[in-house]
Amino acid sequence: MRxxxxxxxxxxxxxxxxxxxxxxxxxxxxxxxxxxxxxxEFALISLKKxxxxxxxxxxxxxxxxxxxxxxxxxxxxxxxxxYRKYKTILEMYQNRITFSLFETSEIATLFIANTSNKxxxxxxxxxxxxxxEQKNHLILGLYERGYKPFVPKSMEExxxxxxxxxxxxxxTYIGSLDRQVQVHIKDNVIVxxxxxxxxxxxxxxxxxxxxxxxxxxxxxxFLFNAHNVSSINAHGVNFLAKLSxxxxxxxxxxxxxxLSESNITKALRDDLEDSGILFYPSMKDFFDDKTLLSGSxxxxxxxxxxxxITKQLVEILPLITQTAMHTVEVMTQxxxxxxxxxxxxxxxxKSNTMMGVAISFYGDLNxxxxxxxxESLAKKVCKIFLEEGENSRSDLMDALGEFVNIIGGxxxxxxxxxxxxxxxxxxxxxxxxxxxxQHKKDKKGAQVNFTVDGAPxxxxxxx
Amino acid sequence: MISxxxxxxxxxxxxxxxxxxxxxxxxxxxxxxxxxxxEAVKDGALMLYLKQLVNKPIYGFRTEIKDPRQLFGIxxxxxxxxxxxxxxxxxxxxxxxxxxxxDTRIFQEFQANLMLKWExxxxxxxxxxxxxxxxxxxxxxxxxxxxxxxxxxxxIVKLIHSQQSLSYEAILTRxxxxxxxxxxxxxxxxxxxxxxxxxxxxxxxxxEFKSELTEYLKLLIQYELSRPxxxxxxxxxxxxFVFYAxxxxxxxxxxxxxxxxxxxxx
Lengths: 463, 266
What we know:
The structure holds 2 protein chains of 2 kinds. Chain A is α/β, with parallel strands linked by helices. Chain A is built from 15 helices and 21 strands. Chain A has helices spanning 29-38, 55-72, 83-92, 105-110, 132-144, 155-161, 201-205, 208-217, 234-248, 266-274, 283-288, 290-294, 311-332, 375-381, 393-417, and strands at 4-6, 9-12, 16-18, 42-46, 50-53, 75-79, 100-102, 125-127, 167-169, 182-186, 189-198, 221-232, 253-257, 278-280, 336-345, 354-363, 367-374, 422-424, 428-430, 444-452, 455-462. Chain A is globular. By secondary structure, chain B is mainly α. In chain B, 68% of the residues lie in helices and 0% in strands. The longest helix of chain B is centred in the first third of the chain and has 23 residues, at 68-90. The relative contact order of chain B is 0.12. The model of chain B has no long low-confidence stretch (mean pLDDT 86).
């Protein structure tokens, strides 16, 4: 089926039934070749005229879209669906969506970079999403393209104001953000969310490389939230115990909350405790344990060997630098000026107002990216992610982590276009710059220093 | 571009029903299968068409049906009438398809699938009206009409279709204010087909809910147009239906269709 290609958006418009048989005919090899040739940024399947779809049909389409993504680096997914279809897709994939969902193709068009865009600030856009990570991605994506979306604080506010907007963005997802076991970060603690029955499948679903790289980037506390777990068996316990023992070698601790007599036997609970796993009744109890949290400051790159920057990393440095500069420029509306580039250990002036974020990436290319911001600059780049009025330093750190995470996500996409597949860890934030690389201060990397309206910004790339 | 005059010219160019076909049809209306078979034998093309169609796997006959009397006998009155209607449509089919990448085999399979499944849907809904049963045979006429009308404007139509993501029906309606079912209805009138058939064709274009039956008909047409061969041919994006089918209708529709397909494949 030949897609319509407009403004770098390729849109497939199937009609009728999307099942295991018909799905195979929607995207054919020559269609993929066309998209490669046209260098489309987006490839979407419109569900507007689809009356019925089943999981098999959707699965085949998702697989074909994956091929497009691999060959073109395009953002792929579905658009033009109503709430019923949207809920059905979420249920089919149990909220683990690796593709993107746009309520309409017009909304998707807002996120296309290379498109003519007259008076973007005049477009009336409202954004609301329960998932804060998604919300932030959507907002940043829009800001980058010059739009000024309104972001209601609550669902009630969104419902009451949406009638005044031309573009209502609520049931939209930018894909490839969710992992098999859902994960988020809070106060520099990686929180994995478990649900249903926890058994040997946890080992299959759990992204071990992601976990190892999180340790590498300096995370030392990992919390498993088991509030939505119905029961856990010996295989699930074994996996968590092994994870805890392996992490201990690097000074990482594993905790679990939400387990009670109703979902774990005493013997299994003892096994978990024997392996060093800490038990908390609830998330709140865990985060109230300030003694534990105060000791969570591992430095980035805790591998024992000192590995310096490689030739491959130097080759991608311009790409990272441009991505970071561009994103900072968009968010601050200020020019970012490069001061110097040196291969050296991370060298920063002593300051109490500097804060850092580290992200590790792995896959076809392994490395660690550290960005250090002066506090006033951090506030400026994170303005859109923060509530109006006073915000705590901890809020600012979270927002800054999210900001660097977005830069990382864009970097992943750009590398994918060059057929280089990588994944990134959650951002590890550092309130004090002395914490960064605390054990490996002699580790060499490429350091690029910038100024933004006189405020310093440093980017450090190493292995 | 395409004008109302072009459409009128097209309708005028539609051949009248041959005498043999009218006589065969009359014999079937009178309930005389033997006479119908004798009339059909006089038209080689009609017999060839009927044989090709009934020997398709979907009809499930284990041995090849060759003898005209046997053919009409096995089919029975209702199916024979339905197939004769399908032959009417065949009169409109071009030798070479250019707008859609179709051929005789795919087109006939489309017809056969529609007819057999429509029969099963009506059985399931306990509708015994023979006019409604045979009316489905005319649906493919819309495809043939589209091919004939758009053939001389192929380049521009393809361009509009690919750039604006409009269905062929939407393109025709925007240009002339008419839908393919309007054209099919006109052809049906030219062939003196019953008003009930014409009425059902016209209901397909209604922009509001008419009946459950119309919803089943639209679902069936769209289901058959979602087959890989028809998606590849470009015919998937043909009609511009507005659906009102609720989950209950959809579930029931899928249940009936799955049963037919399981029987055919198994």
